[in-house]
Write a structure and sequence with these properties.
Strand content: 5-15%
Distance between the termini: 68 Å
Helix content: 55-70%
Number of strands: 2
Structural class: mainly alpha
Largest sheet: 2 strands, antiparallel
Number of helices: 6
Strand order of the largest sheet: 1-2
Order of helices and strands: HHHHEEHH
Oligomer: single chain
Shape: globular
Radius of gyration: 24 Å
Length: 176
């Protein structure tokens, strides 16, 4: 009797005993490589995309301005917590934005002793300009994509970023 291939054999109880299959390592290698290429290309886009000068904005500045625009004035601690970074990092990143007039420091409306950061009218105009330039670039890059493909890519990229954020939060030391 010839030997049997036991890779897909069932146990005497009828259960499948094949080894559990994890994600394909080739796909994971491709994914990590493409994420690295994406990060490099995203940085190149920031430095020289559509409208070159208009599109150029430091990633940290863009994310900070975007958050202030979407969520309104807030303190450094709230901004840091929402972005998953340290307060000292936010303080360092906000300083040039204040110096250039893109962000202003104001008194907290309920506690005059506390300071909140707020997008200035100049900051709003600059953010709108950068967003429009980047929106134009995204339109050009995905010009031959269907609307469904754009939506699927956005959904998957959002899911990917959320999973990374959850993983980072789970691995950060808890402060008491």
């Amino acid at each position: 009797m010839p030997p049997q291939d036991m890779t897909n054999a069932a146990s005497p109880s009828g259960d499948d005993v094949s080894p559990p299959q994890g994600p394909d390592p080739v796909v994971l290698d491709t994914l990590q490589h493409q994420v690295a290429v994406f990060a490099r290309r995203a940085e190149q886009t920031r430095l020289g995309g559509v409208g070159k000068v208009r599109n150029s904005m430091d990633r940290a500045a863009y994310l900070l301005l975007n958050r202030l625009d979407r969520e309104g004035p807030m303190g450094v601690k709230a901004l840091a917590a929402g972005m998953g970074i340290d307060s000292s990092t936010v303080t360092r990143q906000v300083a040039p934005l204040v110096d250039t007039g893109l962000v202003k420091r104001t008194s907290h409306p309920e506690d005059g002793r506390a300071v909140v950061l707020q997008l200035s009218p100049r900051g709003q105009a600059r953010l709108d300009e950068v967003r429009a330039s980047r929106r134009d670039l995204m339109s050009q890059v995905t010009d031959d994509w269907s609307e469904e493909e754009r939506e699927t890519f956005c959904a998957l990229l959002t899911r990917f970023n959320s999973a990374l954020a959850l993983r980072q939060a789970a691995h950060q030391p808890q402060s008491d």
